[in-house]
């Protein structure tokens, strides 16, 4: 079981992960825009697919942040 000190850092850690993931998504979008003529449709589809998975991941992480905030505020609700 995770100790309270480690859990206390979770919201900050999760926010860092979200920020990094969104940065990667934005860089990928910029890359596709800048190199649309140079990359294959398959490469473009792979990048866009990865960005969709990044969006899903961010959504899950945001939910996890909400859960952590509830825990830290003493709310046992879901």
Q: DSSP helix count? A: 3
User: How far apart lie the N and C ends?
Assistant: 20 Å
Give average pLDDT, whole number: 89
Which structural class best describes the helix and strand composition? mainly alpha
The helicity comes to: over 70%
| Quaternary assembly | single chain
**What does the radius of gyration come to?**
17 Å
**Topology as a string of helices (H) and strands (E):** HHH
Number of domains: 1
Indicate the low-confidence ranges by residue numbers.
none
Largest sheet: none
The total beta strand count reads 0
Which overall shape is indicated by the principal axes computed on the Cα atoms?
elongated
**What fraction strand?**
under 5%
Subcellular location: Spore core
Main location: other
Family: Belongs to the Tlp family.
Protein name: Small, acid-soluble spore protein Tlp
Structure overview:
This protein is mainly α and 78 residues long. It has helices spanning 4-8, 10-35, 41-72. Helix 2 (10-35) packs antiparallel against helix 3. It is elongated and about 55 Å long. The mean pLDDT is 89.
Labels describing this entry:
78 residues, mainly alpha, 3 helices, 0% strand, elongated, SASP_thioredoxin-like, sporulation, Small, acid-soluble spore protein Tlp
